[in-house]
Write a structure and sequence with these properties.
The protein is mainly α and 258 residues long. 67% of the residues lie in helices and 0% in strands. The protein has 14 helices and no strands.
Length: 258
């Protein structure tokens, strides 16, 4: 399982003639120029700018999903209102809807709003609780919390919003961290959506910049490309290692365990 990762890191240090021709894992000598070329970026955009663009999109998506999905989940899990059951079933059904089926309508809407070639198409939907999987995840977690806590807060004069922010939200931390981890990883690795909406090189992410190493003649700068792949992979690995304990806890306590 770890061999492809080891091969990626080792290949980022190989000379260009060894990337395809040699089957050895370790390079004959370390080609540090691959990383210096990767640090220069592509299309006169540095790796630092590409990294910032990726972090901006992923961070906005994480913030949007944590806020909107937790609010929607609280409404479905703890509040009583008309059509709650059918609306929840409709929300769950959207999980089976392919992303490509709504891509063209979404593009038309964002194009008419003047948001194409901006980061809003990747961030704004996250603030509208469009990821039904995370709503379901948090709903399952909230249903396991004792209702006596809310009843005690209601006796003390707390309304629904105060009960949510002061009682339910702190107890839902494992599910929220699970949502944040998956959202960060999925958004960071998203290539197709960013390719559709972003045109200017200075707005590219690391994922899009990797594609720019292939020119019109299909000749690739493999060494720098793999070096930039290491830069693109490193934040995900660090983010996952930092929050792995909360991820396991959240999945185990959210009704998804076997």
């Amino acid at each position: 399982m770890l061999y492809p990762l080891a091969w990626l890191v080792a290949t980022s240090f190989k000379p260009a003639n060894e990337v395809i021709a040699s089957l050895k894992l370790l390079p004959s000598h370390l080609e540090w120029s691959n990383y210096s070329t990767a640090l220069d970026g592509v299309n006169e955009v540095s790796v630092g700018q590409l990294l910032w663009n990726s972090l901006l999109i992923a961070g906005g998506a994480v913030l949007g999903n944590v806020i909107s999905c937790s609010l929607a989940a609280y409404a479905f899990a703890r509040l009583r209102f008309r059509m709650r059951g059918p609306l929840f079933a409709f929300m769950i059904a959207t999980i089976m809807l392919p992303h490509h089926a709504v891509l063209i309508p979404q593009y038309i809407v964002f194009n008419q709003l003047g948001m194409v070639n901006t980061y809003w198409p990747m961030i704004l939907p996250k603030f509208l609780a469009t990821d039904a999987f995370f709503v379901f995840l948090i709903v399952q977690f909230m249903r396991s919390l004792p209702r006596e806590l809310e009843e005690a807060a209601r006796i003390d004069g707390c309304g629904p919003f105060r009960s949510f922010f002061s009682v339910i939200l702190p107890l839902t931390r494992p599910a929220l961290i699970t949502t944040a981890i998956f959202t960060f990883i999925w958004t960071w690795n998203d290539f197709f959506t960013q390719l559709i909406y972003l045109f200017e090189p200075e707005k590219f992410t690391l994922t899009l910049a990797l594609r720019s190493f292939v020119d019109a003649s299909s000749q690739s700068a493999f060494g720098p490309m793999f070096a930039m792949s290491v830069f693109a992979l490193l934040p995900i690995v660090l983010f996952f290692l930092a929050f792995q304990r909360f991820l396991v806890e959240g999945m185990a306590n959210s009704g998804l365990k076997g």
